Fold:
Amino acid sequence: MAINSKKTKKAAAEVEQNSEVGKDVIQIQGLSQGQIIRKKFFAHKPAVAGLIFMILFTLFVFSASGIHLGSEKDPFTIQGWWKFAHTDTILTSDCPTGCPTWNHPMGYVPTQAKDYFALVMRGSEISLMVMVVIGSLGGLIGTVMGSVSGFFGGIIDAVMMRFTDFIITVPSILIGAVIGYRMGNLGVLPLAVFLGLFAWTGLTRLVRGEFLSLREREFVDAARVAGASNTRIIFKHILPNSVGVIIVSTTLLLSGAILTETGLSFLGFGVQYPDVSLGVLISEHQGEFIYAPWLFWWPGVIIVAIALSINFIGDGLRDAFDPRQRRQLKRKDYLAKTSTRDAVNKK
Amino acid sequence: MLAYIGRRISIALLILFGSTYLTYNLAAYSGDPLAGIRESTDPKKEAIMAELSRFYQLDVPPPARYFLWIQKIFGIGTGQIDFGLTAKRLSVLDEISAAIPTTLRLVTVATFLAIILGITFGVLSAIRQYSRLDYTLTFLSFFLFSLPIFWVAVMLKEYLVIQFNTFLEDPTINIVSNLLISAVLAVVITGFVSGTRKRVLITWGATFAILMVVLQIASLISWFRQPSLGIFGVAILGISTSVGLTHVFAGLGNKKALYAGLAATGVGVAFYYPFGQIMNASGNYALFGGLALLMLSMSYFIGYFFTKIDKGPVIRSAMLSAFFVSFFVVVDKFMQAWAPYYTLTDGKPMQTDGAYNLTLETNDFWVLNLDLITHLALPTLALTLISFAGYLRYSRASLLEVLNMDYVRTARAKGMPEREVILRHAFRNSMLPLTTLVAFDIAGIVGGAIITERVFSWRGMGSLANEAIVNQDLNLLMATFAITAFLAVMATLVADLLYSVLDPRIRIRK
Structure:
């Protein structure tokens, strides 16, 4: 073993100490499933960073631009702390080119006479809401359809999978375009729900695939022989094993959702005037990339930051939920651990 | 099996019918083709509206109008396929058949590249789990996955294409940037090396030195303006790829595979001059395809006759070597076309918009194709970057899953070399779930093309769909819908059939 003897001795001494007191054993046994998952998740630094960013960013966005719900006639509005709203017309800016100033921290759009910070905040708010609706609807439908279809097989599977194929043939971006462009006046919620109703197919097929191969495994047979009901097998035996796939694809769905929505809005089919979305902002200002880069950079950076954080959170969750995955050992630690074991065994 | 396929195809047709019926009604009810004229103050408004109603057959309600539409498509009564007319009174069929090749060109290369690169890096990432490479690739894939293509495209256009064109005006690299570029590239390449710190540092130093010298020479001889590999360049690249690929896929211990690969490379290099003669400026695709086929079948036989036992790795090594050496020969031909192309485009060879250059005054096969490539480069890069991440994630996850299985442990325990364990036992099984992903990607091509084609101003299926939605052009929209739906149905069907053929555990009859 490529490790110096001093370290080995020290580590061996530690192990000895620990095993005398039995500290290690007690600690491991004392953790509940939830605690283990939480511990593993919080050990995943990018995921924690992503989570913190998402929480802070969501709070920041929603408090800055306020909450605007309800219809036009009967609005429910809570004012945000930012002094301008995305609908306010501001005639002058301190900077003639509209560059970022203290008053307009993200710049000023001369052509629309708007404060860019207010627009970006409102756009992020819309994009976040659409993303959550699409993700939760798609994730829920996908998991249920996939697990039922994969577990029961036979005619149920055949019918459900043909239904999935049917939905797959309807490209969600085209549907979103038709719905968003022609019914954009209804607001973003119908668009989000519609996109969610067509977004679950990928997840369904993956979950089904997972269930199909898992239900053939020995531990499922064992559970069935032991008299477990279908519900128990699904929830206690198969679902925990496929939770990684579900979570990874749901996070992919979420980050895909924000990209779909901003893409649609970029094309002019998604969120409609007077509301804004990050995609609308990019589409409006892509020509000004050279002259007013701040107008182009902010929305894009925010989309990337949101999508990236969600992907990291998903990665952390998958590591945390995966029962087969033990603590990630660094190579150095791994060598140290194996060498102490060797040292102990030699004794 | 045949009965199963037959049943699946008939179900697929039913699905196609259902989905087009749904979308037809959705599209028809959500739009009003007369909206534009309704608000006008034209005195002949009524007459125009009546005319349009007759043209769009608005007196028939959409659920029934669908059948008129589908009847025309199958040419029932008329005997010919008719997708109707667009809002501009053009034949939809003509528009679509002009658009399909463009879209295919746009997505095929990108999809293939994304699959191959994604799987390669995914496998690398999985077998070096928790290494520096793995962390970097994971981060990279997450980052790429989070990129909106319409945002990246604007930046790529500016930073890559326009800056590169500017660079070509004076294609020299000064020593400082050379040092920087070499250092960064060397770090990237060294990332694939594992081992002790000393080994990594030595690799980095060597890569850095080689890169620096190569870049400096390239800069001095103005290589970027008049690039070429020459027969020696092709030979060196061919031999090193051949050895490298043999090392990965068969192991250098497998002498037969090594010799077969080198022999195939030799044949390729020997063909360097004849190929240039046969495929001169007046070459065509048929000849090109024929030569490629000839090369591949020749390499197959080389591999086949080189050994008597365990032909698989030997044939693979020979064919891969032949593929790459031919690739380098072709690249060299394109490089020779670069200088004339540069003059033809007034010193702006890399393109940001469109599918090809309409005003190019040449008949040279290589220059014309180079024009296609320079237009394709940017969209392909953007698309590859974005879908690459998905393949990387899935192939990594799925290989890790398989590597944890007992049969892999068994294979290792019986003393199999790690290469065999990975390639023969783990890799094949881990690629199963990817069939679904590929099918999905193919199904989503038109949907994705809407954005890509808009960003890069291509005129393909995506921009047709885009136009149809804006103009409320039902016939055109439904044609793009129908083709997308057809693609999607076929892709899922093929994926399912493949899945059941590849994985006997998943029974198709139950």
Remarks:
- The two ends of chain B are 13 Å apart (CA to CA).
- Chain B touches chain A through 59 residues (CB under 8 Å).
- Residues 365-403 of chain B form the longest helix (39 residues).
